[in-house]
Design goal:
Layout (H helix, E strand, L loop, with lengths): L1 H6 L5 H9 L5 E5 L4 H41 L5 H45 L1 E5 L2 E5 L14 E3 L3 E7 L2 E7 L5 E3 L7 H10 L1 H15 L1 E4 L2 E4 L2 E4 L12 E3 L3 E7 L2 E6 L2 E3 L5 H10 L3 H23 L1
Antiparallel strand pairs: 1-2, 2-3, 3-4, 5-6, 6-7, 8-9, 9-10, 10-11, 12-13, 13-14
């Protein structure tokens, strides 16, 4: 129902024109930048500075009243020397000057906070990601001057070469033959984009990986690889659950990818990587197309079993 409501949503006219221009189909859903906690922190800072400003104003009022009373007492005092009167006057002026500076500083902080808050709200309104029927679209609005020179506005499903995950969500998408990437974690609630990428991109990347395997006998996924020997990890600080860098096909029973972690089933038991948490986290973030890795491994494992069964018959 929610997906249908999004599909029937009306977007600005220039978004439809931009989607048509870049051939990514019809806009389906919009995603705004993930800056909720930034807004909360800025609002709290503004409140704190405003409270400090009110305290400074009260302090200035009190010190000003005290200065006037002290000046009246010095004027009536017949026994006070001029040096004492000058010292009292200097102390009063120093207190008032300090209070005045604090007021100006806190006022500047409040104004700066309000301006920053206004800018972030404007940024959130005009810098959006759109999921379209045939790809993704970025809208910069009036913020085009923030856009990096040469950075694309649209990304067709066929242009995605590498997919990186964080937990159960896609973290980044990298373009074919390019170092540029889109980081989806900058936007809110992009769960459905992960589903679209899985259905639109994974089959194509799997077909490419399978073709490369048949042609060369090995496929590399950064520090991981699939070859005739089995599943290999080349990172010096990580090994498979069998304490080895390689899992032979004859030992592999199954493989899965969940919560950004690849696990293999050996002797009826699921095992993950062995290594320091920091090394595991680093490897997890740098593995491209882990779902393709699992799909290819499952395919080769299943076909090996079929061939083994045929041979035994």
């Amino acid at each position: 129902m929610q997906e249908a409501d999004q599909a029937n949503a009306t977007f600005p006219e220039h978004i439809y024109e931009l989607a048509s221009e870049h051939r990514v189909g019809e806009p389906v859903k919009r995603y705004r930048p993930a800056m909720f906690w930034w807004l909360i922190v800025i609002c709290l800072c503004i409140v704190a500075c405003a409270w400090s400003l009110s305290t400074d104003i009260q302090m200035y009022t009190r010190d000003n009243t005290n200065a006037q009373q002290l000046a009246q007492l010095d004027a009536k005092c017949q026994t006070c020397s001029q040096a004492v009167k000058n010292l009292d006057s200097q102390m009063s002026a120093s207190n008032l000057s300090y209070d005045s500076n604090q007021i100006w500083n806190d006022t500047a902080a409040v104004v700066a906070g309000l301006l920053l808050l206004a800018f972030l709200l404007y940024f959130r309104q005009h810098f959006c990601l759109y999921r379209c029927s045939d790809g993704l679209l970025l809208s910069f609005g009036w913020l085009s001057f923030f856009r990096k020179k040469g950075s694309p506005v649209a990304l067709h499903w066929d242009e995605i070469a590498e997919v990186y995950w964080k937990g159960n969500l896609i973290r980044a998408l990298r373009f074919t033959e390019s170092e540029l990437a889109w980081f989806l974690t900058r936007f809110r609630k992009t769960q459905d984009i992960s589903e679209c990428v899985e259905s639109e991109v994974t089959p194509r990347l799997f077909a490419q990986a399978l073709e490369q395997y048949k042609r060369t006998g090995s496929v590399y996924f950064d520090a991981l690889s699939i070859s005739y020997d089995g599943l290999t990890v080349t990172s010096p600080s990580i090994s498979w659950g069998n304490s080895e860098r390689i899992v032979p096909w004859q030992d592999l029973e199954d493989i899965r990818f969940a919560d950004s972690m690849l696990s293999v089933k050996l002797q009826g038991e699921w095992k993950g990587w062995i290594g320091s948490p920091r090394a595991q986290k680093r490897l997890t973030r740098t593995i491209p197309n882990p779902t393709v890795y699992v799909t290819l491994a499952k395919y080769l494992l299943e076909n090996a079993r079929i061939e083994e069964k045929r041979t035994s018959e």
